[in-house]
TrEMBL record:
<dbReference type="GO" id="GO:0005634">
    <property type="term" value="C:nucleus"/>
</dbReference>
<dbReference type="InterPro" id="IPR013922">
    <property type="entry name" value="Cyclin_PHO80-like"/>
</dbReference>
<dbReference type="GO" id="GO:0000307">
    <property type="term" value="C:cyclin-dependent protein kinase holoenzyme complex"/>
</dbReference>
<protein>
    <submittedName>
        <fullName>Uncharacterized protein</fullName>
    </submittedName>
</protein>
<dbReference type="GO" id="GO:0016538">
    <property type="term" value="F:cyclin-dependent protein serine/threonine kinase regulator activity"/>
</dbReference>
<dbReference type="GO" id="GO:0019901">
    <property type="term" value="F:protein kinase binding"/>
</dbReference>
Length: 269
């Protein structure tokens, strides 16, 4: 009996490589969002980013809102567009990284699906008083500011989306220091780059890349993460007979669950 070949989409970790598992895929996307935000504010001395605090906020927003991988990927595309325009006054006026991420997730959700949360629900997701008119007004203003910064262009074609997802994962994987693959198994573990000077250097290079990237070209080219991934064997990817354990995105979520319930307020400061 013949079975149809499984069609994999860019929001599925299996689409990229069988040595890259779901936890690593999710964690890479989370880190990609954080690094894109850092990149946006890299030259803005008025904005101070606490990576662990921002990570916690992002994880909780995604978890509580049940945001899909696809929406996160599109929100990151909007982030990249803002990076390209980071010297514009409208973009420079966006001084709160948490507000920025939340607003882009809201916009990506509205573009990607018909049924969406109301502003009142988003306020509730944050653990705040859903009847607080000031919080609702803040989200409405944030949405308008981001729409203006993005020139009201939220459209993403299928080709742009697919190629962007591959670029995004290459970007995220660049900040992995080493990946060890267990011999005779598809299982692997990764170690993330921790040298701040090296991270800043990579961010600078990616900033130049994104600044020069013509988003329209993502409709015409074909970019595959797998090609980049295979090029990293014996450079940062190694076959190993031994295994080491690192925390995954699931571990982080489990730890967060033990310390926090959904009624706790998420600080947007």
């Amino acid at each position: 009996m013949d079975f149809e070949e499984e069609i994999l989409l860019p929001n599925d970790y299996k689409y990229y490589h069988n040595n890259f598992d779901k936890s690593q895929f999710n964690l890479t996307l989370i880190n990609s969002a954080i690094y894109l935000i850092k990149l946006l504010y890299l030259e803005d001395q008025e904005v101070e980013i606490n990576p662990s605090n921002l990570r916690f906020f992002i994880l909780q927003v995604l978890k509580r809102s049940k945001t899909s991988i696809q929406i996160l990927q599109i929100a990151c595309l909007y982030l990249m567009k803002l990076i390209k325009k980071r010297n514009d006054e409208k973009v420079k006026s966006l001084k709160n990284p948490k507000h920025l991420f939340l607003g882009l997730v809201i916009l990506a959700s509205k573009f990607n699906q018909d049924a969406n949360y109301s502003f009142k629900t988003w306020v509730k997701i944050l653990g705040l008083d859903s009847e607080d008119k000031n919080q609702i007004k803040l989200l409405k203003t944030l949405e308008i500011d981001l729409l203006q910064a993005l020139e009201y262009n939220l459209y993403v074609s299928n080709a742009t989306y697919e190629n962007w997802c591959n670029v995004l994962l290459i970007f995220g994987y660049d900040f992995i220091k080493v990946q060890k693959i267990l011999a005779d198994s598809s299982k692997s573990e990764v170690v993330w780059e921790s040298d701040s000077a090296l991270i800043d250097s990579k961010l600078g290079k990616w900033g130049i890349f994104f600044s020069n990237l013509n988003v329209k070209n993502l409709d015409a080219v074909e970019i595959k993460f797998i090609n980049y991934y295979l090029s990293q064997f014996n450079l940062k990817i190694f076959i190993s007979n031994s295994f080491f354990v690192k925390r995954t995105i699931d571990d982080v979520n489990d730890a967060d669950d033990s310390d926090l319930n959904d009624k706790v307020k998420l600080s947007c400061k």
